[in-house]
From TrEMBL:
<feature type="domain" description="GH3 middle">
    <location>
        <begin position="359"/>
        <end position="432"/>
    </location>
</feature>
<dbReference type="GO" id="GO:0016881">
    <property type="term" value="F:acid-amino acid ligase activity"/>
</dbReference>
<dbReference type="Pfam" id="PF23572">
    <property type="entry name" value="GH3_C"/>
</dbReference>
<dbReference type="InterPro" id="IPR004993">
    <property type="entry name" value="GH3"/>
</dbReference>
<dbReference type="Pfam" id="PF23571">
    <property type="entry name" value="GH3_M"/>
</dbReference>
<comment type="similarity">
    <text>Belongs to the IAA-amido conjugating enzyme family.</text>
</comment>
<protein>
    <recommendedName>
        <fullName>Indole-3-acetic acid-amido synthetase GH3.1</fullName>
    </recommendedName>
</protein>
<dbReference type="InterPro" id="IPR055378">
    <property type="entry name" value="GH3_C"/>
</dbReference>
<keyword id="KW-0436">Ligase</keyword>
<feature type="domain" description="GH3 C-terminal">
    <location>
        <begin position="448"/>
        <end position="566"/>
    </location>
</feature>
<dbReference type="Pfam" id="PF03321">
    <property type="entry name" value="GH3"/>
</dbReference>
<dbReference type="InterPro" id="IPR055377">
    <property type="entry name" value="GH3_M"/>
</dbReference>
<dbReference type="GO" id="GO:0005737">
    <property type="term" value="C:cytoplasm"/>
</dbReference>
Amino acid sequence: MAVDSAMSSPLGPPACDKDAKALRFIEEMTRNADAVQERVLAEILTRNAHTEYLKRFELGAAADRQTFKSKIPVISYEDVQPEIQRIANGDRSPILSAHPISEFLTSSGTSAGERKLMPTIKEELDRRQLLYSLLMPVMNLYVPGLDKGKGLYFLFVKSETRTPGGLLARPVLTSYYKSDHFKTRPYDPYNVYTSPNEAILCPDSFQSMYTQMLCGLIERNHVLRLGAVFASGLLRAIRFLQLHWPRLVHDIRSGTLTSQITDPAIREYMDNNVIKPDPKLAQFLTEECSKEKWEGIITRIWPNTKYLDVIVTGAMAQYIPTLNYYSGGLPLACTMYASSECYFGLNLNPMCKPSKVSYTIMPNMAYFEFLLHDPISGSTSSKLVDLVDVEVGKEYELVITTYAGLYRYRVGDILRVTGFHNSAPQFHFVRRKNVLLSIDSDKTDESELQNGIENASRLLAEFNTSVVEYTSYADTTTIPGHYVIYWELLSKDSANSPSHEVLNRCCLEMEEALNSVYRQCRVADHSIGPLEIRVVKNGTFEELMDYAISRGASINQYKVPRCVNFTPIVELLDSRVVSVHFSQELPHWTPERRR
């Protein structure tokens, strides 16, 4: 029921009273962005004044911006890692935060090959929940009738560990899904999922995916939107359907649940609430899934779908063509901008084209500062500007100060200012700083890639062969996507060159040297496929340089790109490939033990 026009928001007429309240909150926060930021900083500094970290910089009782900026340094993870490690080891004194650190959120970014540990406090769950509560009121402005159906969202928990001091360390979404905020959330007709909590919370990824897909198929006519966190996750679900539809159809036809589902909570829920014979649906799914072409499969199976809710900004943009193929060009909605360190803001125009996505920073979430970034040289200024003082068209690196004890922390995201909503800036996510390759939640930088090359190259030494040049490419034409590494080799003894099997082993050795997030994606999440090495003809990289120079590059300043995505360059490299090799085994991965 639409609310009275007197309650309308500048964003548009809200769908209900609850939405009206949420939209008014957005307006209040963004109209008074600078005052809210000043209040947030004062709250953080006042409550944490007696922490070891702030006392170190002799801030005293000061809670104003000028003192804060003159005394507190800008830091990266490595600067605060010793304090984080002490907390992880069991030190409960107020080191970073006056409030107890409740757990660590593991970042997809890594330090020395291991996930970064981000401290958090219990009240941060309330802050994250607040941002979540704003998403549907905004979406309802653009897509009416979402209360008349359900969302098929593929949501998963990942592995968690405990630090030596006993604190949980887990991804931010796993923390949220396991919290009462999610598990005991009140009924909201605009936000009903087909997936039961029992399936979402199942740690076995196969059982979780199978159950969520089965529920989505059974409720196909009620589904109004499909989603996952990342675009890669939704494509993984489609691939799962391609592989397992005969078993899913069997369960639907017979009204039974496969014996592969052993989780007792799932079995009880499905037996009591979902499973019953439906031969008509089974026949329909058989006809659709048996077709050679899967173009438009999403709208064929879920005909009432209005949009896909997935992140397709940054590295995820590479999946847009494949999503369009499977969905028949459904709108792609990017709703929010968040990380393990902090939740930042939301997209006030969620149905815009992916290339136009901009996130409005909510000034109540943390204290935000920005380092001017030069997109040409890649250099970053040392001068910080406040949230309301950024300039449209310029790029910045994000710096945050959080309630949980991160002070002037460089997140590593590069953002471009596209405009303002009231006095709050709107940003387009450009990229993660220093990241070369990314398929899912993995982020591999140049030094990690170089380390992998060196690790694999050791296998070539006995054949008097070396890697003279290399580059890489994130291949998302396969599901799951995988890393492709192009090698040009120099062999001093052609009669004793490395065999196909040796080069396959080089693939695995590269994977063993990559960070733990990559290896978890390969081993536990199955969200990345085996690494591939494509050996190219001698002279290929010289051709690559010639091509770059022909397009205006300076011969004196030319450097081989360590990652390529420009189609003509990829095509040039692929046309020179002489052999192709893959990892034949999984790399080593176990849940990290926190030292």
